[in-house]
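User: I'm preparing a small set of examples for a lab meeting where we compare how different chains pack in three dimensions. I only have the primary sequence for this one, and I'd like the structure in token form so I can line it up with the others. Please keep the answer compact; I'll paste it straight into my notes.
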Amino acid sequence: MKATSRRAALGAAALLSTALIASGCTPVTVPTSTPGGPDTTATAQPQTATTPRTRLALITDFGTCDEGEQWVADQVKAWDVDAIVTTGDNTQNEGCPPYSDTVWKYYDKGADGKGDPLFFPTLGNHDYSDPGAGLEAYRSAFPYLSTDADPQQRWYTETIGLTTIYSLNSESTAEELEAQRVWLSETLPAQKAAHPDNWNIVLFHKPAYTSGIHEPNRAMRPDAGFDYKAWGADIIISGHQHIYEDIVVDGMHYVTAGLGGTANFRECPAERREGSRLCLEGTGGMRIEATPRTLSLEYFQQGSAGQPKITDTIQLKRSSD
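Assistant: Understood. Below is the structure token output for the 321-residue chain.
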């Protein structure tokens, strides 16, 4: 199915999803392979005519205008996704102009400027600090982002088929974080009630839990008032550390989604924090597939001869009762 036809089908999938009843969610982690293990052939999952599906690509810390960003963009194109979402640092290379080159040189802007497939970014620290970047440049590049939650488009929610994303801004003052906390505490339960079959994915740049070299983002942890699990979130995904890591805390997966380019490569630390299931280093991108009963996240990296291999899979399942 072409990207344009998948995009047109989202409305029908969303209508169907609201007619189904969701029950409790039990996270089940299924590692597909580990660093240094055998290649896993990366093929599209089979689909049936009766099961609605939504497919997303998630990229982070890209915007480097190098061979790594091109490789990830090629994988995303092959996945035939309904939308592309990011967890920040949509630019991070001084020699690569934001966002005309860092984003739209690699991803189709589409006739309406919203991306084809749809493109939904999240703010990162480099989106504020890099030459040519900044909030106004970001808003100019992505003027279509919702202003319902924040007139400056720094945080928003978007329903995409069987998924609802909540893009937060970790580059915020304490007052702004409190505004986001209140908004998320109200919006997430409301969206869950309105779309009971949807998977709720929370995105922000600096991870709440991490083994990486940067300090964790303690201000956005549950004990700081961001009670994601109680509000109905299914998974939390961040970036910033340039490694892929899955940390499970109180049954919730907090994923750091890797490195979408080649520049600024970092190694996994020798010691990882409690709850860290695995750590992977190097360039990669994530494919997310949602059905009414399952949410599957697959992390792709380069295997032999540059071919893609799946190096980790996280699968969440809902019980059938």
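A couple of notes for your slides: Residues 3-34+52-318 form a domain with the Purple Acid Phosphatase; chain A, domain 2 fold (CATH 3.60.21.10). Confidence is low (pLDDT under 50) at residues 1-5, 11-41.

User: Perfect, thanks.
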